Amino acid sequence: MKLTFQNDSAFTQELKSEVKQYLSRNPGGRLADRGVWVKAIIFLSTSTCLYLTLLLARLTYAEQILVDILFSLSTLFLGLNVMHEAVHGNFSSKPAINKIMALTFDLYGISSDLYLIKHTQFHHNYTNIYELDGDINEAPLIRMTEKQPWMPAHRFQLIYTPILYSLITITWMLFDIGRLISAKVGTRSFRRPNLLTTLKILFMKAVSVTLTYILPIQMLGWHRALPLILIFHLGLGLVLALIFQVAHVHEDAIFNESQITTDWFQHQIKTSADFSTRNKLMIWLCGGLNFQTIHHLFPNVSYRHYPQIREILTKLCQKHSIRYVEFESFSNAVQVHFELLQKLGKKQAS
User: Fold this and answer.
1) What is the pLDDT of residue 297?
2) Would you give the DSSP letter of residue 328?
3) Could you point out which of 44, 118, 205, 251 has its C-alpha 20 to 30 Å from the C-alpha of 343?
4) CB under 8 Å, gap of 24 or more: what pairs does 306-313 form?
5) What is the pTM of this model?
6) pLDDT (tens digit, 9 = 90+) per residue, 248-272?
């Protein structure tokens, strides 16, 4: 499947020009500033300390569960603020530093190299186009678009989707191995990683299994470790999946255009949504991923700029009569997401 977007519209040219001017006036340009780095160090340090506390401190089981929940939350914010930002190369102008920061992905069993392919090559370039977007075509049990074939199981997807979402960080390792073997995301092929990268991916998988499963079971015993591992992953996976999914899978998003009638920038606006853009705590915790539309328009710009870029975008959308979708809160976005899943789960009329 080959798609061609239209040439940049007057709206897009104006948007790119204004954002470029804005960035030129800011120290550090598009990249992270001291505040972003400090926050990254906070979450890296917190996650490391909580992990070591779980393994080494003499705690009651109730205390271990509490520390485990805090560890899961810290890892969630680490993923949003560090892992994702590093993959997009937004910490430093030096690629090596971004790659080192992205290794935090690998420590939790998600290959940063394969995520870069899946996330940027397919999801970012072809958002909500079923044949190409790995975020909506790799989960056949969850029907996210009318173009996806309906199955009887979809009648119950409103019930089992939260369970599947909560397992995402556990199953991602298996999906990565499948992608590495097949050199495909969904049904679409990509260039197979070279030998050195493949060895790195496999080595980091072994490190992740050791840190995530072998060490906890050896030091705490399987009867304590396995419930803690499950608690850690279930909450982390559910919230992480929802933050990404609600931004693109909702009633107001455009899916599967048979013919692209807009430029790439307008396509991103039509297929994305933001939420909680005035909630300072949510902005701080989410690492800009509640500004999903802004992120898709300018993925190589640090999230520290997103609130200001949003002001530029909304002004120009109003000027050019382009619809910008925004949910007042995360809970509102989640509600709309599951309303669409309920609708898509119903059997199609024959």
Assistant:
1) 96
2) S
3) 118
4) 307/277, 307/283, 308/22, 309/19, 309/22, 310/274, 310/277, 312/15, 312/18, 312/19, 312/22, 313/15, 313/269
5) 0.90
6) 998 888 776 656 778 999 999 999 9
